[in-house]
Amino acid sequence: MRFASLELRSREAAEDAVQEALLAALAAEKSFAGRSNLRTWLTGILKHKIVDAIRRSTRERPPETELSTDDLDALFDASGHWRDPPQPWPDQAYEQKAFIEALEMCLAMLPARTGQVFLMREHLGFETDDICKELAITPTHCWVLLYRARMALRQCLEKSGFTKP
Amino acid sequence: MIDCREASRLISQNADQPLPLGRRLQLRLHLLVCDACTNFRRQVRQLRKGVRAIFR
């Protein structure tokens, strides 16, 4: 449910996806037959339902105009150096509860489409070509969104203070 | 020599698909002398592992 809300950006759409996944799971109960871990199996079904929902919402949405990268250029000074240089994070930061919670909060703060594309890439493991196809956006648009997500997340996490050694 | 602005873009792109040889070399040279971008490259990997940890 948590994942569905982050990815679909709407509690309502997330509830629908989870419900559809559970119904599909009940219908396919026999095919489960203890082949894999129950949680993994259910999560797999949910991922499919989320992709379906993303496809539907893409069809209903007018095509987007190309993104400007002005906001990203502002992160660097005139000579191309970081205004706010990335700091070293603790080696296993991603194994700490505080870091993961902060990351989740930062993800929720990303603009909807940016967060969606980032999670399609990093959680669902889509290749960028497939993301472009599913969302009907250009490859340039896609990499700008991924770049923007990473830049915003690192700044947000460093501000949250959970990346201090 | 590429600057940090360009290097950071290549680092992000490299996390999604392999860079052409020339770009890869430019990036590698830059990373040799730049701690901030080296940190950024590590952060991109840690973000990936962090996202996986959220949904584990």
Description:
The complex is a heterodimer of chains A (165) and B (56). Chain A is built from nine helices and no strands. The longest helix of chain A is centred in the N-terminal third of the chain and has 23 residues. Chain A has two domains: 61 residues, no CATH class; 100 residues, Arc Repressor Mutant, subunit A (Orthogonal Bundle). In chain A, helix 7 packs across helix 9. Chain A starts with a helix and ends in a 5-residue tail after the last helix. In chain A, 66% of the residues lie in helices and 0% in strands. Chain A is globular and about 60 Å long. Chain A has 165 residues and is an all-alpha fold. Chain B is an all-alpha fold and 56 residues long. Chain B has one domain. Helix content of chain B is 79%, strand content 0%. Chain B is built from three helices and no strands. In chain B, helix 1 packs parallel to helix 3. Chain B is elongated and about 40 Å long. In chain B, 34% of the residues are buried.
Count of individual helical segments of chain B? 3
Biggest sheet architecture of chain A = none
Quaternary organisation of the protein chains? heterodimer
Distance separating the two termini of chain B: 41 Å
Biggest interface pair, counts: A-B, 37 and 29 residues
User: What percent of residues of chain A are in strands?
Assistant: under 5%
**Class computed from helices, strands and strand pairing of chain B:** mainly alpha
Poorly predicted residue ranges of chain A: none
User: Regarding CATH, which class of the largest domain in chain A?
Assistant: Mainly Alpha
How many structural domains are formed by the residues of chain A?
A: 2
* Strand elements of chain A, count: 0
Mean of residue pLDDT values of chain B: 95
| SSE string of chain A, helices as H and strands as E | HHHHHHHHH
The number of helices of chain A is 9
Helix content of chain A: 55-70%
Low-confidence stretches of chain B: none
Mean of residue pLDDT values of chain A:
81
What class, by secondary structure content of chain A?
mainly alpha
Helix content of chain B: over 70%
Beta strands of chain B, count: 0
